[in-house]
Amino acid sequence: MVQGEESSWRMASAHERVALPFNQALAYGVQAHAAAAAAPPACFLDFQPAAAAAAYFGELEEALIHGGASASVDPSMIKSDVQTKSAGYLAARPPTLEIFPSWPMRHQQQLHSGNSQSVGSTPDSSSAQNTMSQMELVSPASSAQRQEVMMVTTDDYSYKPGLAAAAAPPPPGPAAAPSFQQQPMQLHGGVHDKRKHGSTRKDGKLVDTKTERRLAQNREAARKSRLRKKAYVQQLETSRIRLQQVEHELQRARSQGLFVGGCSAAGDMSSGAAMFDMEYARWLDDDSKRLAELRGGLQAHLLDGNLGLIVEECMHHYDELFQLKAALARSDVFHLLTGTWATHAERCFFWMGGFRPSELLKILIPQLDPLTEQQLLGIYNLQQSSEQAEEALAQGLHQLHQCLADTVAAGTLNDGAAAANYMSLMAVALEKLGSLESFYQQADNLRQQTLHQMRRILTTRQAARCFLSIGEYYRRLRALSNLWASRPRENFIGTESLSPTATELQVMHQQQQNQFSGF
Amino acid sequence: MQYGAAAEQAWYMPAMPVAATVEETAAQCVKRLASESAVVVFSVSSCCMCHAVKRLFCGMGVHPMVHELDLDPRGRELERALAGLLGAGPATAPVVPVVFIGGRLVGAMDRVMAAHINGSLVPLLKEAGALWL
Predict the structure, then answer these.
(1) What digits encode the pLDDT tens for the residues A63-73?
(2) A-chain residues near B119 (CB < 8 A)
(3) Which residues of chain B make contact with A393, given a CB cutoff of 8 A?
(4) CA dihedral of residues B59, B62, B67, B71 (deg, nearest 10)
(5) Within an 8 Å CB–CB cutoff, is residue A399 touching chain B?
């Protein structure tokens, strides 16, 4: 039934603009047909051969076949019914939807020809309506109701009476069903005669149930796919709206941040910076997952082998972050060093674009308490060498700043841009600025090496606790930043008007300070 | 300490530009210079990363022999030879500083720092006789 579904999807997009009353009419039709579906009339047995023969077509064509093959119906009843029903259509439908691109041309022609022969007495507009209604039957509308109706047509071989029930009350049960069936049958009579008698069936009832079951399954599948489509579209819509909101917030925040921080006037971040921010956000998500894994692993007292795997993953995760930062340093080193990608509280402790290794070690040592002598020695050596390396890098950076300042201030500043060696001056300054990247690279390298060395010194369990501590420490800093950002502003009305949250914040802040008082 | 012409605040030992023997290739020159002293640093006087490396060694109490390539007549060749020794890297990255300890190549700044962090630098220095205690 993929064929039917495909065409249904295509047509659905084309028919978004059909009038609402038509949908309502179809709704009635569904209800009416549901009543009719309970007891398939005997006259339906006639076109079961047609159904069987045409089973290999899509369910759309099946609907027509079944609809077109009913036998003993009163023609007068048909005409009158058609007229009343199509009158309702006339009111409901704009007669403009005759062209259905996905509808095979021969069907259209036959529809037209069949229509003109059989319903010649009815007014043109109604015939047009019926043609359209035919096509509407097999072409699913944008609304679920119409699709319901289409699906319904494949049920019980009875043509949709609902289409006919436009403004009129639901037609009385099976009586209406065959009456309306006659007309489509006549429309397709010429085409489907062959099919009707194409194959022979001994036991009509057996085929009935089997085909019925199959059709029911098709219906179910189609319904499910419709629901899925609806859900997907809704999801797209909501995420689009959310994306717009987030973009607005970002713009607002960035403009505010830029204004406060006194950074460059350009509102746009470079693409490298934007990409890094996105990747960093994803890294943070992964980070929280890793922390949860670590915590779970420690509590579950996993074997060292398994815990070691988790620890290795954590290490790898940090390596990824350093790779990201290296890429950022290559593309936009200023974004790295200003640290706008990190939260405010983290930025307080920033040293050359990230954490200061010796500081982190100072925090970690009390957390890893049961350490052997050798481990303690190793960690203190690590601390000392990282301090020396940090000092060396800081000195180098200081030298760079000096050089840069000297270069930019070379010559007389009073001359402005007209100074003699302005261009060469700028060129040298540019070159000096380029070496900033290498300093931040080295700083990140230092951080990475420190983490690796920690991993080497500690046992697996200790390393797990170490990574957990690091992760939790930075998570707390980030939470602190969020709390700070959302704290209620002080108002001048009075101290008692300070909301409890403010005092809570203060308490929490003090607690955190006490926690890290050792460092 | 000896103060070279280019050092304003020289607290390291800049080596005088060595008069190379005629037939020596740049690579051989590098090798020779590297084995002349316990710790040898090839640098450029205006490079701040080289400054950082020098500071690092001085902070550890090591006094390296520094060869300023921009003050050496063969400096460019030596730089190319050093680049060859270090292996392929980004073309725009500066080669210097390059550190040799005990005649053996340690590498550029990142290698030196990695060695220092994982505790292998100090034994190396002690072995080369640049550090006591």
Answers:
(1) 555 555 444 44
(2) 378, 381-382, 385, 453
(3) 52
(4) 40
(5) yes
Q: What is the pLDDT of residue B125?
A: 93
Region of residue A353 (left: phi > 0; alpha: psi -120 to 50; beta: else):
left
CA distances A495 to A42, A498, A501, A510, B50, Å, are: 86, 6, 13, 19, 57
- In this structure, what DSSP letter does residue A352 have? S
List the one residue out of A249, A273, A414 whose CA is nearest residue A333: A273
Buried b (16+ CB within 10 A) or exposed e, A492-505: eeeeeeeeeeeeeb
Rg, Å, chain A Cα set: 38
Residue of A nearest to B46 (CA): A403
Residues paired with B66 in a beta bridge: B14, B41
- Condensed to tens digits (0 to 9), the pLDDT of residues A92-125 reads 555 565 565 555 555 555 545 444 444 444 444 4
Min Cα–Cα distance to chain B from A459, Å: 16
Q: How high is the ipTM of this complex?
A: 0.83
Provide the residue count of chain B. 133
Q: Which residue of A has its CA nearest to B110?
A: A442
- Name the pTM for this structure: 0.54
Alpha-carbon A185 to chain mean position: 46
Is A435's CB within 8 Å of B47's CB?
yes
